[in-house]
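Could someone model calcium ion with this protein?
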Amino acid sequence: MPPSAGKAQLFVDRDYGGKNGTLDVGEYNISRLKEKDQAGNDTVSSLKVAPGYAVIAYTDANFQGDSKEFTADTPYVGDAFNDKISSVKVRAASAAKDTEQNGDDWFYFEDSSSG
Ligand SMILES: [Ca+2]
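Reply:
Sure, complex below.
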């Protein structure tokens, strides 16, 4: 199931439960998102990511501390990040790779139908 809106959705409880907030592409300090019915600082336990996008979660504000990239729906973010996420970045998952390839995607194309 994709996020209900936006490109990512953060949930306070495991298995996509409890209060939650949706995010579009961007960089967020979670403390600034703290509103009723949204996921607050140091509360996130699960998250959803729209296909083709990535969430990079940080244990501290301003994208500091430990970080982990999530590129798929995650029913539990893991002990290292549970109730510790304080800032997140949401971006297209292919953005970094596209930059590295510098427009040379053509040469990586393979026709799988030819065996
Ligand atoms: Ca939680």
